[in-house]
Amino acid sequence: MKVRFENVSMKYDGNDRTILDDMSFDIQDHSLVSILGPSGCGKSTTLMLISGLLMPTDGKIFFGDTDVTKKDANARKVGMVFQNYALYPHLSVIDNIMFPLKMAGVNKKKRKERALELAELVQISEHLNKKPGQLSGGQQQRVAIARALSKEPSILLMDEPLSNLDAKLRKGMREEIRRIQKETGVTTVFVTHDQEEALSISDKVMVLNEGLIQQHSGPQALYDRPDNIFVAQFLGSPEISTFDFDDLKAGFDSSLRDRLQSKDVKLIGIRPESFTQVYGESGLITGVVDRIEIVGKERTVRLKLDNEQIVDITDVDINFTEGDKVSFTTNFDAMHFFDGYGNRVVIKDAE
Ligand code: ADP
Pick from 201, 234, 267: which residue ends a domain? Predict the structure, then answer.
């Protein structure tokens, strides 16, 4: 099911603060979209508005061509999966999966058939007669997904579904969610604060900050072409370094300098993996190696520039030690340009 928000705003009752401000977006049918952003930015509120468990203060919500703004969650036929599984502890796995169908008055034979099919889909068939308490966290989440899919929802909504799982299981389960979503084709909206999770499984990622959409695009575009400084800094670890244009301009040839100046470029972002070392002090940045951190195969060089700015650099050969003065440069394509408002400025290489 396609979902559209038209100028949706949200304030909670009795609270004057605007949580979501004039939000508009489209979610394509059969796609998996993640809502990503820091804690408190409005991710769950957005999900609840899609579900119909919350009503917007302003604006309209469409499922396909139907205006569902005033319809509740039941009428919208959404399926939901939460962080804490919310399974019925006294019911077996199969009864948990069948429960929504029982409530909907589906006959026993049909609901069993459907539950078995779903148990197969989420690979929980071996545990049908167990109670939730006898299952691991990952298995419980599989049951919760099967239950949410039982009534063939118009859309599947997942709020931090993997937060209670340990790191290794999270990785496996996120791939499972992607597989299940692809096999069923159900339009899915997935809330997370974990960038790796969002980038690895989504067709599109919506980055939110303080109730505003910062960027809504394919995962690679978020990393390669961030629309603003917030997105550039939110994605990637170690964080992208940002430099004042004035601090770097001496390293540019005059034509590039003029072009950047004419487009009002104020900040330049360079990702840690985009630097290459140059000999002497002829690079774009030169500083003292403050720290070399080696964790497994990851090597991070922490460089301290003359102006005290710290720059993290990865993916370089380490032929220096802490305290050495080292110089680095980058190429034009690896530089992200932003204006004084922090918005991306597009500069063509050969303009
Ligand atoms: P996220 O999911 O991104 O962490 P939420 O959507 O849960 O963010 O919350 C966004 C903002 O709305 C937060 O500042 C939160 O305190 C506020 N908020 C959430 N629920 C309520 C509520 N029921 N009443 C008032 N404010 C709320």
Answer: 234
208 and 147 in a common domain: yes
Residues 172 and 250 grouped into a single domain: no
Ligand 1 atom nearest to 191, measured from its CA: 2
Residue 91: per-residue pLDDT: 96
* HSE-up of residue 277 (Cα within 13 Å, Cβ side): 18
Please tell me the pTM assigned to this model: 0.92
For residue 149, give both structure tokens. 């899919």
Query: Ligand 1 centre from 40 Cα, in Å?
Result: 6
Edge-first strand listing for the sheet containing 325-329: 276-278, 325-329, 285-295, 298-305, 310-314
Look up residue 235 and give its DSSP letter: S
Residue 68 Cα to ligand 1 midpoint, Å, equals: 22
331 lines ligand 1 (CB under 6 A): no
Whether 350 is covered by a domain: the verdict is no
Residue nearest to atom 5 of ligand 1 (CA): 42
